[in-house]
Amino acid sequence: MEIIQADIEALEGIVPLFNAYRVFYGQPNDELGARKFIQERITNKESVIFIAYESDKQPVGFVQVYPVFSSVGMQRAYILNDLFVVPAGRKKGVGRSLVERVYQFCEEMKGRYVTLQTAPDNHTAKALYEGMGMHLDNEYENYIKYF
């Protein structure tokens, strides 16, 4: 398996994965919208995307992080917003390798932390994250308002 940081050249490999990720979360199939969204994130340098490829150069997963800032720490921090592995790539360490690459990137960038949200019933993901040193933050309560 090879993991690369995506640039515009990797767009064709990301779009089907990103679209499948959105469909998994109940969104309509929209490859055109997925292409536009990912292309804008890459072009505008608004996110960092890593793609995992199998030995046959087939993309099998991706992770996308968004930079934010910690005012208290006066450092960058990162939101691990999207992680997806195709069904054929699951239980093979692809997700773990992608998260490890995010950790490495955050350390390289001298980030203060990486944070994420997941559904309470996503036991597989929770086990992965907890097994990789993340913990449920009971210190702060998070609020959200959707528009």
List the helices and strands and how they pair.
Layout: E1 2-5, H1 11-24, H2 31-43, E2 48-53, E3 59-70, E4 75-85, H3 94-108, E5 114-115, H4 123-131
Parallel strand pairs: 4-5
Antiparallel strand pairs: 1-2, 2-3, 3-4
Domain N-acetyltransferase: 1-147
Pfam families: Acetyltransf_1
GO molecular function: acyltransferase activity, transferring groups other than amino-acyl groups
Key terms:
five-stranded mixed β-sheet; 4 helices; alpha+beta; globular; 147 residues; single chain; Aminopeptidase
Describe this structure in words.
With 147 residues, this protein is of the alpha+beta class. The chain has a single domain (2-118), classed as Gcn5-related N-acetyltransferase (GNAT) (Aminopeptidase), CATH 3.40.630. 35% of the residues lie in helices and 24% in strands. The protein is built from four helices and five strands. The chain has helices at residues 11-24, 31-43, 94-108, 123-131; strands at 2-5, 48-53, 59-70, 75-85, 114-115. It has a five-stranded mixed β-sheet, sandwiched between helices. A hairpin with a 4-residue loop joins strand 3 (59-70) and strand 4 (75-85). Helix 1 (11-24) crosses helix 2. The mean pLDDT is 95.
